[in-house]
Design goal:
This protein is mainly α. It is built from 5 helices and 2 strands; from the N terminus they run αααααββ.
Length: 254
Amino acid sequence: MVNRTIKTICAITLLYLFNISSLGAQTEENELFMTPDTIIAPADTIAIFTETIVAPADTIAISADTIAAPIEPATTPTKKPPVVASDNAANPHKATLWALFPGGGQVYNWNHGDKWWIASLKLTAIYGGFGTLAYFTVRNTNDYRDFREAYKWVSSKQESGKENKYTDGSYSEDQLKSYMNYYQTNMEWCYFFIGLLYGLQIVEATVTAHLLTFDISDDLSFSVKPLPLPLPDRSFSTFNSAIGLSLRYKVQYK
């Protein structure tokens, strides 16, 4: 009886161990079959991450296009066609030649765009100046010659010079010499101012001819504008700014 019981227990034990080993083998087999599926899942995950990485590449390409856009060479603005002077435009060279005759340059500019009232004032000033200077030149020249002849008459004891109204004894030899030098100086100054006026009217005619064809539009390369200058605030004064001049010059780069 005891032996049968022992055999029964051994048989049950062997059966239990066999079942356990069978379950272990099946579990290992299932793990072997499940391993590829488990590996495939990370592969899909890697593929997903790979597709995710492609998106920043597109973003970088778009950013590169965006960056490249501002550095494209700017189109140069079309240049305005040069202004061709009309046949009636003033010519500075011709104005200078006309000005060799006093007032001729001003008349030339009058006929080529200068305002009539401005040209009239210029001609009045020119001919008025020449007339005034001519009068004083003649007067001082005559007085100088009279006093020179009287001085020669008195100083040489009537051996040279000519007798005139100044040789009646009212003037001494020194007075005659002083008046002679005085009128000589005035005469020379009159000749000087005549030459100066003659040169100025030539310069004025030439400059006016240039200005009649000068560009005075708003699109200038050089401009002068008032500029407020800030000053430190002071307790004794309410003014904290001043007025100055601003010079602006446009530089065109090729």
